[in-house]
Amino acid sequence: MGFSFRSLVRERTIWLPNWKGWGLIIGITLLAAYASIKFAYPLLAPTQRVTANILIVEGWLPEYALEAAIDEFKQHPYELLLTSGGPLWEGHHASGFHSYAELAAQVLRSLDFKTNQLHVAPGPKVWKHRTFQSALATSQYLAASKIEVTGINVMTLGPHGRRTKIIYDRVFESQCPVGIIAHPSSEYDKDRWGRTSEGTKHILTETMAATYEWIFRSGR
User: What would the pLDDT profile of 6-15 be if each residue is shown by its tens digit?
Assistant: First the structure.
């Protein structure tokens, strides 16, 4: 009995789309791409306030966002503003500040924010899960200071908002309601983020980061 190639394979019927099928596939792909571009920023950068007595500001925010945080504080019935953030990776010798939380607090003071309404909660030095560690340090600071918390709103920047909301929801869990304020970045137009490399990078990076956080609960 001789060797035959047909003894190694078998026939199968393969269904392939016709021109109508390809048209449908292409149409769905284009629609999905359009929806991703149109709704990615609002999904990643929500502003959803709750009734809160504490405004938490992520310390790495640029100065224009810190100015907006002062406006936010004045326009709502907050009792105190708390800056969060871990160690400065560079510049701490020149600035004299060892954490983003301390640096942001000093910027707020220079903008005439009332010191008696300002609290600082530095986070630990970590190489990963920095937002989680900052949120945890904030929760521990409030508990150790015996500050009554009826609700918190967390101010961050642009597409980092969704990830920040997920993390603070999990850290504070049933302690109090958690709101999020995603201040727009000045580096690109939030409605045309796809036209700039900076906007595209932020959206893609935060999409992956928020998905990772939602699935794997980093730091826990």
Answer: 777 777 888 8
Residue 199 and residue 193 in contact, taking contact as beta carbons nearer than 8 Å: yes
Q: How many helices (H) and strands (E) does the chain have?
A: 7, 6
Residue 176 tokens read as: 């109090």
Q: The whole model's pTM is what?
A: 0.85
**Cβ neighbours for 41, distance < 8 A, ≥ 6 positions apart:** 158, 159, 190, 191, 193, 203
- The CATH number that domain 44-216 falls under is 3.40.50.620
Domain boundaries, the chain: 44-216
As a whole number of angstroms, the distance between CA 93 and CA 100 comes to 13
Task: pLDDT band for 1, please (50, 70, 90 cuts).
Answer: low
For the packed helices 100-110 and 63-75, what is the interaxial angle rounded to 10 degrees? 70
Identify the helix (H) or strand (E) that includes residue 95. helix 92-95
CA-closest candidate to residue 164, choices 99, 218, 105:
218
